[in-house]
Amino acid sequence: MGFKKGFLMTAGILALLGAGAAAYIVAHKEDVVEMIPDNALLVRPTITLWYTDEALEDYLASMALNYLEEYEIRVLPVYKSGLEYLEAVNQASLNNENMPDLYIIGNESLEKAHLAGLAEEISDAGQVVSLQNFPQTALDAVTYHGKQVAWPLYFETSALVYNRTYLEQAAGELEAEEAELIPETIDDILTFADNYNAPETVEAVFKWDVSDIFYNYFFAGNYIEVGGPCGDDEQRIDIYNLEAVQGLLAYQELNQFFSIDAESSSYASVVQDFLDGKLVFTVATTDILNRIAQAQEEGNFPYEYQVAPLPDVNDEVHTRGLSVTNAVAINGYGKNKELANAFAAWLVDAGQEKLYARTGRLPAKQRVASEVTGVEGFEEEYSRSVPMPKLMTTANFWVQMEIAYTKIWSGENASDILKNLSEQIMTQVSGEPYVESEYIEAPTETQTETGEEPESE
């Protein structure tokens, strides 16, 4: 955002009035009143909020207006580039020049922010950040070494999106209930593909972006641990194990059924294929909801759709996807910490009611009213997802994991690839050369259920 645009938006905040925090002020009136100076009507307190997501611009401006009206406290939203964002927060704080009192940041950066004094433990007297309002995923995402160091605002994750119109048609042809055809496992998708009499418009039963770890991680995500539930414990790292190898082998085998070129694969093309009616199932992030709504409005998506949790590999090997929680951190160097905490508490509670409508971002808070098809499916997947870890020592894990998935998809040995990755990450964490003590031989399709090779005739 340029200086002129930022100046005009700030002027608008001071000139216009909004409404929307009445319910929140009733519940927290005493706390808020204590924070407002006696001369608040003459000199309004001001706090500065930084953010990097341009989609939040109108929403934050509107929330600032509402908050000004209800509390006589100015909130100045300031857009900043995402490049070197945390470094910019740190530099402004050290120089004491236009520093943010609070800022929105991905949960994966909270260890770095907290250790630098830029994300202190929140002051949550009203217990807003609790299981009453948020899923455990959100609480884990903002927790570092037992302390809640940010306020969860909105999330991103992936889920299974399907063309419901096609599924209804298939149910009629197969004389089955529609609910029976919603896949719970990858095996279910393969069975569906074998029996589905696809219309000419359908080019693939199942297609997703195999080049991006965010859409692939779920195959092994239930069995890979990087930092424990909160992603902050170097003693809890487990990358190389039998179940993870089995999940990646199942991923590799899908290349035989759904030939997708990893080098040319892209999320944008996959979403467009879905919108064009060329796919029955895909894996997508929450942005697809807005893409579908736009296509419907333009008359380019004459189908019904729905969102379901990511399928397990099979009845034995379960899956779990990734999630990022964008949260509001309180700057430890800020001069208005109490006011910043009060605004953050309001923003992630009462302020979330209009978040999706204004931004297309799904609130981390549970049960926020929305009439949009598919929201519940993404919320369910978020609640069972793995939050991005905070550990700085494993920051390159995701790049290396994406490379590993690409190699495995292309046919390289899954056990070898995962073993090498584990040894690399553990060497980084421990500071000493690390070698896995055992090599995992994954069971093959010719082995019996007990894991023994059948006797030769």
Largest sheet: 10 strands, mixed
Percent range for helical residues? 40-55%
Count the E strands.
Answer: 14
Q: Determine the strand fraction and express it as a percent band.
A: 5-15%
Radius of gyration over C-alpha positions, nearest whole angstrom: 24 Å
- Uncertain parts: 1-42, 446-457
3D shape: globular
Helix count from the secondary structure assignment: 19
Structural class computed from helices and strand pairing = alpha/beta
In round numbers, the mean pLDDT is 89
For the termini, the CA-CA separation is 74 Å
Short account of what is shown:
This protein is an alpha/beta fold. The protein has 19 helices and 14 strands. It has helices spanning 3-15, 22-35, 57-71, 85-95, 110-115, 136-141, 164-174, 178-181, 186-195, 213-216, 218-221, 242-257, 267-275, 287-297, 337-347, 355-359, 375-383, 397-409, 414-430, and strands at 46-51, 74-79, 102-106, 143-144, 147-148, 151-163, 204-206, 225-226, 237-238, 279-285, 305-308, 322-330, 362-363, 386-387.
Q: Can you put this structure into words, describing what you see?
A:
The protein is α/β, with parallel strands linked by helices and 457 residues long. It contains 19 helices and 14 strands. The protein has helices at residues 3-15, 22-35, 57-71, 85-95, 110-115, 136-141, 164-174, 178-181, 186-195, 213-216, 218-221, 242-257, 267-275, 287-297, 337-347, 355-359, 375-383, 397-409, 414-430, and strands at 46-51, 74-79, 102-106, 143-144, 147-148, 151-163, 204-206, 225-226, 237-238, 279-285, 305-308, 322-330, 362-363, 386-387. The strands form three sheets. Strands 1, 2, 3, 6, 7, 10, 11, 12, 13 and 14 form a ten-stranded mixed β-sheet that branches. A two-stranded antiparallel ribbon has the order 4-5. Strands 8-9 form a two-stranded antiparallel ribbon. α1 (3-15) runs parallel beside α3 (57-71), α2 (22-35) runs antiparallel to α15 and α18 runs antiparallel to α19. The protein is globular, with a radius of gyration of 24 Å.
